[in-house]
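Annex B. Sample input.
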Amino acid sequence: MKNFYLEIKHIDKKTGARYGILHTPHGDCEVPMFMPVGTLATVKTLSPEELHQMGAGTILGNTYHLSIRPGADVVAKAGGLHKFMNWDGPILTDSGGFQVFSLAENRKITEDGVEFKSHLNGDRLFFSPEVSIGIQEKLGSDIAMSFDECIPWPADYNYCKKSTERTLRWAKRGKDAHTREDQALFGIVQGGDYEDLRKMCAEELVKMDFPGYSIGGTSIGEPKEKFFEMIDYAIKYLPEDKPRYVMGIGSIDYILGSILRGVDMFDCVLPTRLARHGALMTSHGRVNIKNEKYKEDFTPLDDKCDCYCCKNYTKAYLRHLYICDETFGKRLMSIHNVRFLIRLVEEARVAIQEDRYEEFMKEKLAEFGDERGF
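Annex B, continued. Sample output.
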């Protein structure tokens, strides 16, 4: 496809963690990178200008949600998702598959696709590889995702095998339906927690020659060791010269452990969701801003953070805003949490280039404390 490729600039000599530049039609991004999630064409409470200031490279939009509201045709008439939401950087859209399987009621999976009810009003809807690709082409994202089944955890071997084989057939159908030369379509590796299925799925997707690959069906409730096993099972079969993406991870232990294994891209709603509930990631561990002890704490939230929130406001003020349910507090805390993860990955990129990623990772995990990485 046009103007899309990964340029590997350095590989950490001790761990194999990668630093590179992802070239896209809407600009270049350094990887590894954390991508904020803008489900409904907005990262909750944050403006595109603020995201740029925080160092966000690529942001996400959600195919399922945007197909319902405002509708893909509306976005297309606006000139595509970039113009619609006033974001001039790269955008990735997921396939809608995860939402179909996590939100939809009374779904029926067939070889053609999935019939289900809208989580909003109960309307009957249908998603297939062709439908998903068609919506994403109208949205005009730089990166689109193949339509797949997000296999639940745990699931038995026979279920996983049948589902993975269908996901591969769907990947082929989606690739055949995809027509935009300015949009990269990623394949998604499924297979549950079975090594042979992950291997089979990765190898078959590589034969289809996608511009990039995601490792799916992870971070859905499985233990941490299983998460990393599923990454390990798949990643060694993926091309070294193409981007690797793990969906839905936003805690520092999962992010740093994935980078260690050669993952380039990851996303999660976690930083903004936590912020709206008064939970904050800091260099000194978790902060629950609701705590009474912060009522008269007039120090910054994180003295090591360079975000707008930490440079201008105190814990006492943030607690006051939270207790009063003020939207400005949710905005400030979202700015901090998103910037915290972006800054973490920025520092990781420097450590990779200096061949000290393993030491950096241990230092950060110890600094934060082992609280499930958040």
